[in-house]
User: Fold these one by one.
Assistant:
Number 1:
Amino acid sequence: MANQITSFAAPKKKRLEDPAWLRYLLITSALSVVTLIIGIPVFHVFYKAFEKGTGVYFDSLFNNANTLHSIFLTLSIAPRAVFLSVIFGLAAAWAIARFRFPGRAILLTLMDLPLAVSPVVAGLVFVLLFGMQGWFGPWLASHNLQILFSTPALVLATCFVTLPYVVRELLPVLEAYGEEEELAAVSLGANGWQMFWRITLPNIRLALIYGIILCNARAMGEFGAVYVVSGRISGFNDTMPLRIEKLFQEYDMTGAFALASVLTFLALITLGVKTYLEKNMENRHSDSGGTK
Amino acid sequence: MTISIKNVSKKFNNFSALDKISFTIPDGELVALLGPSGSGKTTLLRIIAGLENPDEGSVHYSDLEVTTKSAKDRNVGFVFQHYALFRHMTVFDNIGFGLSVRGLPKEKIAQRVGELLHLIRLEGLENRYPSQLSGGQRQRIALARALAAQPKVLLLDEPFGALDAKVRIELREWLRRLHDEIHVTSIFVTHDQEEAFAVADKVVVMRAGKIEQIGSPTDVFENPANAFVMDFLGQVNVFEGMLVNGVPRITGFSDLKGPPQNDFCSKTIYVRPYELDIEVNLTSIEALPAKIMHINPAGPVVRVHLQDLNSIATVFVEINFSKLKELGITTGQKVYIQPKRLRIFTPDYMI
């Protein structure tokens, strides 16, 4: 009997494992593709930025008022867009996960629109809405409100493209946790805010942080929508990606790559935070899972 | 506190979960809502708690109508079927939650949590997380959490449903003793009639959104209001028969051989397994010839499976072990079944 078992088990184990040549082929091709189209370009950005020495690098970053301004502008727009996306994302994810209402399916579909539509189109939509020929343009002008070609338009356009990220992160978590703990909190006398801050938020905290990180990365890198609504006035409403493109068009390679290296560096920080949190998330799951 | 339900109805789309339910629970009683799944018992419990709104009717706590009040303002203790403990909080914070949202000072909360941990006999576990506890411990924490703010009503939704058989029996006895100590009006939902009988002062039997019978466990078991209650509360033997001069007779009794003469008076007769006797010799005209198929002598009560030789139907009989010895019957033997009590209900329900 024991012999039979081992003779059964041996070929099974072999079948489960792919042959060595296939494994190495797949690993090598994956690694080389990543190196070729991600690794080398990223390295090249830093190489080009520092090609003429660190002196020139810092000079082109800090002694150029327009470049400096673009860094500050991006760093001020991104948090505002993220803030709005988080408020909206929390409300939308909550509504979709907890309530059944007419239009719920449409809301769910519309939420994904920014992922599907080109950001340039989004930018154009804002121009058509707020431009002088647009619906609200004349009214805004008569009340001395400047939206297009200034910071509010940049925030709005950035918001448009970052909306789905928080919702997409929160929805599955909200649905997985279910509403029983929330109902328990209400039955114990908690009001809406107490329930949200003490029960719901701790349960979705990590998904929310993850959504914010993705949102932030997308906000800092946004080009298309912002390009259309900004008006591209140097030192006034050029964000980092727009500034990089302008420097590049003006053949200021060192300046363009120096600024690109800053943007890349910010992205790498974002990735680092994300990786750190993912590790922590795993640890938390292992000591708090299996409550049911 | 007395709880009254008046004409409560609830529909989910076109499904009628509750249909004009009315009843009153006296102060301090422990009541079981008993019924098969889909009978509306959990919906009723949630309406009493304020976690669900009735379409019609009203809920009253003593003289106060609470129909439109939210669960938060009703001061009820609700124990969920799957406990619904806050998984990111320690046992201490779970139990203290109801007090801390009411803004009680820390020392007061600590004192009350200490009392409750003593009550549920889980002292020393206050810094554990729910995932580090067994099912029975979690259930007791959920109960302590519900009791923390001294609720006027304690509501339990299938409180022992997710536990294994041994822990379930321990916990339900513990709940009974606990109720005798604290005397808070309590309602629990269950589909297990044994559990309802073991714990409750009063049983409310429900089916398809309606109440079939309300009464003490003995009352409901001994005098079921209809065939559904009779069938739901325990095993039952069903015989074809008729009323002869107002007395139920089973087809197959020696005075009623052959098919019933008049279809209009044909009746279904219900007999519990312990209401049947086995005799080796025919001593009465009220007996059915039967063959013993199987004898299951596990425990003091012996379960005998017989085949009714007239209708070929299987009949279950429960007799004492001493009676079995006395009779000396064996499998395959031909005997007579003699009913001690026959029941007839108006035919509104088919088994």
Number 2:
Amino acid sequence: MATAAGRLDRTWEAPNILTRVFATVDHKELGLRYIGTAFVFFLVAGAGSLVIRTQLAVPENDFVSPEHYNQIFTMHGTVMIFLFATPLLVGGFGNYLVPLMLGTRDMAFPRLNAFSYWVYAFSGIFLFASFLTGNAPDGGWFAYVPMTGPKYSPGDNLDFWALGMIFLGVSTTAGAVNFITTIFKLRAPGMSINRMPLFCWAILVTSFAIIFALPPLTLGASMLEMDRQWGTHFFDPDNGGNPLLWQHLFWVFGHPEVYIMFLPAVGVISTVIPTFARTRVVGYLLLVLASVSIGFISFGVWVHHMFATGLPLISLSFFSAAGMAIVIPSGVQFFAWIATVWKGNPLWRTSFLFALAFIVDFMIGGFTGVMVSAVPFDWQVTDSYFIVAHFHYVLVGGVVFPIFAGLYYWLPKMTGRLLDEKLGILNFSLIFIGFNLTFFPMHIMGMLGMPRRVYTYQSGLGLESLNMISTVGAFILGLGVLVFVWNAVQSILFTGEEAGENPWNASSLEWATTSPPQPYNFRDIPVVRSRDPLWDGPDARRPDWDPGLSQPHGGRRESLGTTVLDAKTEELLTMPKASFLPVTLALAMLGLFLGILVDSMIVIGIAAGVGLAAMALWMWPTEDEQEEALA
Amino acid sequence: MLRRWAAVVALAAPAALLGGCSRGMLDAHGPDAGRIATLWWLMFGIACFVFIAVLAFLAYALFHHRRGPAHFDQHPLSAMVFVLTSGAAIPLVLLIVVFGWTIVVMAETNTGLGDPLTIDVTGHDWWWEVHYPDGQFTTANEIHVPVGREVELKLTSDDVIHSFWVPQLSGKMDLIPGQTHSLYLEADDAGTYRGQCAEYCGIEHAHMAFYVIADEPAQFQQWVSAQQQPAFQPTDPQLLAGQQILLGSACVYCHAVRGTNASGTVGPDLTHLASRDWIGAGTLENNAENLSNWVRNPQDAKPGNAMPPTQLDDDSMKALVAYLQSLR
């Protein structure tokens, strides 16, 4: 056995440090990098929000200039949505956990996965490079034309934004394709689709949503960039263009994007709650159907961002109804979780507290969501601080709280160490109190007439004390995040208890291997016979195993391919080894976008040449494939 | 029980605050704002009820789990029925109520009933041009309307997208370049209602306020007649000097003073500047000190706006400000 494990190690481990850093294709390594990178972006964008709140603490403040304020709030939104929430949940949790939960050894396309990470990291650097030039994007996260067109934004600011969006979209789309293939084809034998963990369902629905939602954004951003650099007039009303076209394209992407962040977060909650309630989830089928139907409905709601643009009332009422309809699947999810808690016997841990806080605060965001679907009410509050309050309840209550629940839940698996529970409760309390103190008053500010995105406000409008409360809350929230960082560093590096394989007695397969897992995840491939394989295995708390792949054949990285619905074993897959091509291709793309930004044909030419060469090498058949072709 | 009361207090406090505060959308002085406020209170009531009910149920589920329904495991169907009843059926009923009310309010809101007073409002970076087609005069940033009469605002923009919002009178409507959309509103009571641009429109979005001033009909007619007059022509030497400074400088390329050869249209019309309460689109009160500071360096109070600084010695500045203040 020792020799078998040794041979598996040699097959799956990176041979040296250089390979490990730049050429790894291990989904766990990449997942951790996604989480780390995204968390750094979170801290930076969070620091930006503290600058915003300091500026707004008192009326007519001049803590920052209007130019800087506008850049900071634009980057706060852009970074939180595109570089933090989506990559952390889908790229980070998704990458790390999906193959483990499915009982397989890697993603379906490991090199593509590495490519996704590098493109994500480089596009983040590309966006942040704008600060070095002093021209960070300043058009708001939805960059409405014509303000963002060449006439009213002549600087480079919006070029960084539009090109960054196109660049990042490559990463997100490639990731989504990879998840769909992995989830359909690489599940452990016996894990029929109706036994798949709810988190994987969430990632599956999210991936489909990404594939359909991203093209309108890429198209819109490309048209914007053409308007800006090459003199087209797609959005220019002086020359027959239409500014509302941008809004449609952006929100056809932008509304599903909210659910692209929210659905994986719901997947986390559906995983955490049964574990800490110590019972099987109630209404598995309903939870799956809820996710799928939210995925569909999310594509029929985009106009509810455009109620005040003078569109015909009859179409507004359709989008109003579609917006409200999302309550039904959300309500089903809520009561499935409550029924699970009711049936179970709760284990009070920080992760569970964050899940409960999610229920409370996301519910408030849901109520205000219904309110803004009511068209006439939306005419009052849209583009006001009421909306700022609403979407922070949805995105912090509904997405960031689940992210913290997930971090407390899975970091022990990823690092082998439990986080400290005392610091955890302090962390939780500060974040929960700080968050509500920051954002609840914003509902009232909006109803009193304070528009969003103002760098200051007049005194005497009844806004002073509300804004001061909000600023104090923001600093408490910030302190809570620092306590988390402290807890993570201290527990993981120094004092954390050993986690062991399955510290929470959870039921899914990621807990059936060491913490952290070996590079090959499982020595033997698990065989699944129920939805909760670790609770139903013959040897209590262990699944069944198929030992067929415990010995690597001819030094190949092997995994099993199974059928889409029933997960019957279908083929033996040979997975690729570490490769420098993904990082090379991603670098070439970075060069390409920089070339477009500075309008240099030489840079574009070199980058395109390197990229094409990397793609050609990537596609070059391996020895195995050549033999197969000859035979 | 204690928990429930705590929730009631927590929800009632902000509600009381909202109801008590002036200037907000709930302090309605027009029929549209009134209807929307009623819709809010309906939705707020339902939300409070559901919030308390769900939290109470969650608390019960957390702390009374031992009496919980173990039979959910044996009878998955009963779990389905429970989840679908409380998570789908009850919300559906509530949603139908909310949606029905929404449609009713929507049908009555922002609809022209006939014979409105028309006013053209054009958004600029970062001020509001206000034109009265019947009276054939133009002003800026302060919109006078007669109490009790329907007003049709024809909204468009000269540059980027702005949004017109007076919370006490009605909801928003965007000002979109190349398009004109109507916003119908009516003021029930005489008074001054503050509004502000609600769509982010660039560096000075924060300083793009305006006022709707609802006058009694007779007073409104007076105001219209006064606005229709050309600008006051001074005879006093200081005012004449001030007028010469204005007409002899770059001011005339951007600003109009009807009856003189200042006819620029880039900035606000100054014909009756002194009849307005604010300068800089609601940024500063209209008084001598603010006027001279504004003319000396408009970038102080409103950095990024299109007006350049003007170098004038003290006497000239006094004369110019005196002239501006004579433009009633």
